[in-house]
Amino acid sequence: MLLRPFSLVLALILTACGGGNHSAPSAVSVLQQSADGAVSQGLAGVVLAHLDPGHMTQARAGLRELGGTVPIQAGDAFLIGSTTKAMTAALAGRLVEQGRIAWTTTLAEALPDLAAGMQPAYRAVTLEQLLSHRGGLMAFNNGDDVARFEGFLQSTPGPLPTSLPARERFFAAWLLAQEPIATPGQGFAYSNAGYALAALMLEARTGRAYVELFEQELARPLGLSVSWTSADTRLTGRPIGHQGPKGKLAPVTPADADAAVWLDVLRPGGEGTTTTPDSYATWVDWHLRALRGEATPLAAGYLQRIRALKPGEYGLGWIATDVDGRAVIAHDGEYRGFCSLLVIDARGRSASFAFTNTAADDGLWTLTLLNQTLLDVERALPPAP
Question: Which fold has domain 88-215?
Fold first, then answer.
């Protein structure tokens, strides 16, 4: 199962009008009531968090595994899916700031050995365009794209690559030979594969693997604890993913090992990204500080582009939207029975996020529920003027 696209539900619900609550309830009570309510409406388990300057409040509800008795614990790790994309973009921003690559570096410039086999329209696609889903590339968030690539693998004569770096280049060469699904460099077309190509460009310009770059250039400077869980891993002693219709959830079983090694090439878009709520809160807090104008390890070019987003516009792993007219940036994620959702005030005054070990077959009811839950939290705990 692959990552789903950014949810249109998010933009629709977060921009809903009315219903504001101007009282000052306890953040703890708001979050716990909201977490309990989300579980009562079908989630297996959930963690909700709200941040304002210098403070974070968190609440948990539900179970690690339906049918079990162990509740969601403090420090439990969750798969976060596509909310990883902003992290990959922030990593790119730091490398741009170091002069290792530019936002305007093209696919043909960064990957000259693949240029001859690319569709000509891809050659001028830039790093920034890939990170803003304007590369015109296949999405790889649906079974059709996966089946098409699997068919190619099955028809390929001779041995297939056996290392992750070789698989990344093999996948990239095949992907770039496919017809664009939107006008490269112009039309918006959500693509997990585009983030894989962006990361490959970073690898080519630095000589280091994506995971190594992530750890050295992002996780350490920001104090994050992030790992990657392969799709064939059997989760134990932690929340497991659940998927299905409301009231009929089933645990997500490990993927076939042969398929899992190919899913790893999509890590930069969120395949398998794993972290705890506390670590993720650190990531969010850096953004709050930066958006308030404080000095942070986040690159100036990354922040400049986020601030410049117009309502409804997507860029660098974020979409600009609003909560009852208040400007925010947001993103959601879904992967192997887990969902995440983050909303940050555009002025850096507050933020809320949710992790759950629950996903819907169609990606809809769980994200709709998380959207409404965070909207209720944001309305009950508005930022200071």
Answer: Beta-lactamase (3.40.710)
- For the chain, how many helices (H) and strands (E)? 15, 13
Pairing of strands 45-52, 55-62: antiparallel
- What dihedral angle (degrees, nearest 10) is formed by the CA atoms of 298, 302, 304, 307? -90
Tokens of 375: 């909207």
Pairing of strands 351-356, 45-52: antiparallel
First CA to last CA distance, the chain? 43
Residue 361 scores a pLDDT above 90: no
Tell me: the pLDDT tens digits for 35-79? 999 999 999 999 999 999 989 999 999 999 999 999 999 999 999
Is the distance from CB of 359 to CB of 338 less than 8 angstroms? yes
Which two structure tokens, joined as six digits, stand for 78? 């969750």
Enumerate the CATH 3.40.710.10 domain ranges in the chain, comma separated: 8-84+223-380, 88-215
Task: Give, as one character, the DSSP assignment of residue 157.
Answer: -
pLDDT tens track for 165-215: 999 999 999 999 999 999 999 999 999 999 999 999 999 999 999 999 999
- Collapsing DSSP to helix, strand or coil, 1 comes out as coil
**What is the CB-side half-sphere exposure of residue 149 using CA atoms within 13 A?**
23
Mean pLDDT calculated for residue range 324-340: 97
| 123-177: pLDDT as tens digits | 999 999 999 999 999 999 888 999 999 999 999 998 999 999 999 999 999 999 9
At residue 11 the predicted structure's pLDDT band, cuts being 50, 70 and 90, is: very low
Give me the CATH topology for the region 8-84+223-380: Beta-lactamase (3.40.710)
Strand partners, 318: 315
Q: Is 19 left (phi over 0), alpha (psi -120 to 50) or beta?
A: left
